Amino acid sequence: ATGYLAVDLLAPRVPVTLELDAHLFQPLPGAGAVHAVARTLKAGRAVSVLTVDFTDGSGEPLAVGSASFMAAPDPGLTMPAEALRQAASEDPGERLTVPFARRALCERREPGVAILHRSDEGMNASQTVNGGLVALAVEEAALSAARPGASVASLAMRYLRPVRLGPAVATAAVIAGLARVEVRDAGSEDRLAVVATTRTFDG
Prior knowledge:
The longest helix is centred in the C-terminal third of the chain and has 14 residues, at 131-144. It contains 4 helices and 10 strands, in the order αββββααββαββββ. Strands 2-3-4-1-7-10-9-8-6-5 form a 10-stranded antiparallel β-sheet. The two termini are 28 Å apart. α1 packs across α2 (81-88). By secondary structure, it is an alpha+beta fold. The protein has helices at 2-10, 81-88, 100-103, 131-144, and strands spanning 15-24, 34-43, 48-56, 61-71, 106-110, 113-116, 151-159, 168-175, 178-185, 191-201.
């Protein structure tokens, strides 16, 4: 939701994620609809800050979050017309037929390590790995080192540089349910791309 709003705010420039966080009130139900409504907190010349509220089908609050974006430094990068139409559409699209991580080519390599493979579908308009998919790698790394049945309760990310080549390798160190996660671009000399923290609900 915040990504679509950022596209609208910064169009035709390409938005770049700087920070992203999400905090759940309780574990999400295993089925049902989740609605996300984003709004602008600040639309500055350099950085825009957005917030998002998540509710279930009956309007009960599920989670809150926020994100900050800037326009890609290269003014020649612009959003494709199809992406602009999608951001303006209320059509949720087709339901996934496989788990999201599998569809995104994100796999748990070992406890505390998740690999997000580069794919054409996972690239953004600036030809770097989509920031939301990097967040998926952070979540998978943290959960792979957590107790069985755990789910993410909170997530806070700082994007330091884009993942250009991939794969993105997320490594989590977990103590008492709190994980510190680093994401590195394995194809770019393992450069640090993202630092994050997560906390989990027990299963």
